[in-house]
Write a structure and sequence with these properties.
This protein is an alpha+beta fold. It has helices at 24-31, 44-64, 119-126, 129-135, 139-156, 163-166, and strands spanning 3-8, 13-19, 71-73, 79-81, 88-94, 97-103, 110-114, 167-169, 177-185, 190-200, 203-208, 213-214. The strands form three sheets. Strands 7, 8, 9, 10, 11 and 12 form a six-stranded antiparallel sheet that branches. Strands 1-2-6-5 form a four-stranded antiparallel sheet, with helices on one face. A two-stranded antiparallel sheet has the order 3-4. The N and C termini lie far apart (41 Å).
Amino acid sequence: MPITKTKFWGNNHQLAVWLIKESIDELQAMLGASHVCPPEITHEAKRAEWLAARVCIKYLCENMGISFNGVDKDENGKPLLINQANSELSISHSYPYVAAIISTRHTVGIDIEQVRDKLLKLAPRFLSEEELTQTNNEAERICLYWSAKESLFKYYSKGNVTFKKQLLIAPFDFAEQGIMHGEIRMPDVNKIVELEYEVKDGYVLCYTTPCPTSL
């Protein structure tokens, strides 16, 4: 089983990262015949991501004692565990990795990204002036800020967010892994959210912890 990272905050808040090494047929066999990749997803890597994400989620559900009945989406595109109204779910994928986090007590958000130089040009669109200064124009740091804001976006989960002005990251000491704090500034939500991150093998992983604090 290619689980490359797990983190458990007890039985009610857990995450896992899966490195895809299996074929489409192997992933489908692991998932079971009752959960089939939609036919409109034709690209092989995308099909592998879809299947591996659900295998990863199934693993977490089994570990947490939750029945896995598949994944649906709400009107805003937020993923939901079918028939598990009291569970929160967030998913991310950047081939060949997929990541998932489930909680029965807290809202969650997770993102995994491959470090890409093209974010250097896009950075002024989603980073504030202070955040741009903090990145020192380094691709790895810019990618981490993007991943952190994606995690906050998923945590908020209602869409219509301006990343540059409404999702903000406080200054932090950059390292291979650590803690940062993000702020959601929306008309209906004003909240500080704790984020944990890891930079490894050309990828960044960022996710919310069970420690959000309202302002």
